[in-house]
């Protein structure tokens, strides 16, 4: 994995502004791993994708994450610091792209969810329907106890529930939950941590700060954007300090 330059990161940010979240995550990875095709990145199991996004975050901003979440019970904002080492992203799924699952006498051939699935489900507002569509995409073949092929929608609810649980546990890092407790009302709750959304928020804020720096230094010294971006962070801050009255 390479660390994108400031120019490359700004270009990636600008190009991803109009993209849906799942596509933005792929754009960020493409900037850090240009040797991989878009198709290869999009086919990565979500646990692997998020492990790579976490490494990119470490390269860009370090290993400490500052989280701010509202308490669902009293709306108090909770601040928490988290190290990337505290997040379990081993990135290695417990099964290959195609895996056999036996449940209640049914034989299933499944694959782990990938970014292609998230992109296909973008805009689906009904959680139950999104779950059904995801399973239909990830179940490559389904056989009833007699060996006859059946559609995913015909599987019993118990089988679908076991399959969902199996897929979540088989791809470590695909879903990461953090536990919070509100110091004000002592309410405790789990919350899903989305590294893709978290990293995009940080890059968006970084891009806006960087462009403001470019604006100030270009007006003060007549430099081009490329000149400002080529400065080290330390020198840029010194020049910005000199521009202030």
- Would you tell me the overall average pLDDT? 91
Largest sheet: 3 strands, antiparallel
Low-confidence stretches: none
Structural class: alpha+beta
Across the major sheet, the strand order is 3-4-5
Characterise the protein shown here:
The chain has about 240 residues and is an alpha+beta fold. The chain has 2 domains: about 5-90 and about 175-245, no CATH class; about 100-170, no CATH class. About 50% of the residues lie in helices and about 15% in strands. The protein is built from 10 helices and 7 strands. Strands 3-4-5 form a 3-stranded antiparallel sheet. Strands 1-2 form a two-stranded antiparallel ribbon. Strands 6-7 form a two-stranded antiparallel ribbon. A hairpin with a 6-residue loop joins strand 6 (about 175-180) and strand 7 (about 190-195). Helix 1 (about 5-15) packs antiparallel against helix 2, helix 2 (about 20-30) packs antiparallel against helix 5 (about 115-120) and helix 8 crosses helix 10 (about 235-245). It is elongated. The mean pLDDT is about 90.
